[in-house]
Amino acid sequence: MENLDKFYRHFERPPFAPVYYPTAEEFLDPLAYVAKIRSEAEPYGVVKIVPPEGFKPPFAIKSETFEFTPRIQKLNEVEAIVRERLVFLEKLTAFWDLQGLEFKPLIVEGKNIDLFKLYKTVNNFGGASTVTSKKLWTQVSRKVNVRNSHGVGSLKSYYTKFVGPFVAVLEAGAGIQEDSLSDTETKDEKEDCEPTMQGRRRAPRPKGRMMAGLPQPKRSKMPSQKKKSDPMENVFCGVCGSGDDEDRLLLCEDCDKSIHTHCCQPPLSSVPKGEWRCPSCVAKEVGKIGLNYGFYDANVKYNLFTFAEYANKFKTDYFKVKEPEVGQ
């Protein structure tokens, strides 16, 4: 938030937009006139064109067939500082939801802590590692109005558990690089391999191997035939590269990458109850949040008449006036 203050405290008025007064002859072709003044008007970003007296353009829209989808614009979300906070909180919540893990707000001393302010404060002190090494958590807690020592511990623990991993994944862009995955897992194998996951965990392989130290049974010679391999034999953890502990291997809902629960960052003590996604897919989905913040397309299409009815009804209800007075 602090990095935006300068735009509010040291605001410089932009130059006034020019106003153009074309003659009737110049405005015979309005688009040609706009093209003519474009080079000198563009630097201002906006200009005003006052058409000549008597200019009456024809109504170009066919009102009987024209339909449109209105765009909803929430002005309180467009403002930069508010928008930054809302986008941060939405991304943080989605980050944990996409991994099937429950995310709870931070309440200390009976107060709901502003997580965006906490994040910015830690960042201003140099990041979580610097705050921890220099023992600055007490100073951080004061910035977010937490006073007692127990609250400082809760603040540090919460940040380390919930905010830290979120920040780390976003800064890295993607938690697991593609080349860290096993070379044995090819595209063809992915397509041929039917998911046999229960709760999106990898199903254990059949126990056909002998335990170490026990004698191996003698095998009789059989006619040579192609050995059918279990496709799940080629599923490995994308972090440690091991295919062991099958019951602890999680399968991403989006890309089918596998990772052990104990190889996740942070490590998971149990298999998530909901859907789980790998860090790469989480970072990709979270990165989409906020791109069109404050602007949403409505779910209903209107024509000119139905939208006029909708607008009049809104103004009637909002301004508490009779319908005939709405257009005044």
TrEMBL record:
Gene Ontology cellular component terms for the protein in this record: chromatin; nucleus
Gene Ontology molecular function: DNA binding; histone H3K4me/H3K4me2/H3K4me3 demethylase activity; zinc ion binding
Coiled-coil segments on the chain, per record: none
Comp. bias (Basic residues): 199-208
Residue ranges annotated for the PHD-type domain, each copy included: 234-284
Keyword Metal-binding: yes
Region ranges (Disordered): 179-230
Residue ranges annotated for the JmjN domain, each copy included: 17-58
Metal-binding recorded as keyword: yes
Gene3D superfamilies in the cross-refs: ARID DNA-binding domain (1.10.150.60), Cupin (2.60.120.650), Zinc/RING finger domain, C3HC4 (zinc finger) (3.30.40.10)
Any GO BP: regulation of DNA-templated transcription
Protein name: [histone H3]-trimethyl-L-lysine(4) demethylase
Originating organism: Nippostrongylus brasiliensis (Rat hookworm)
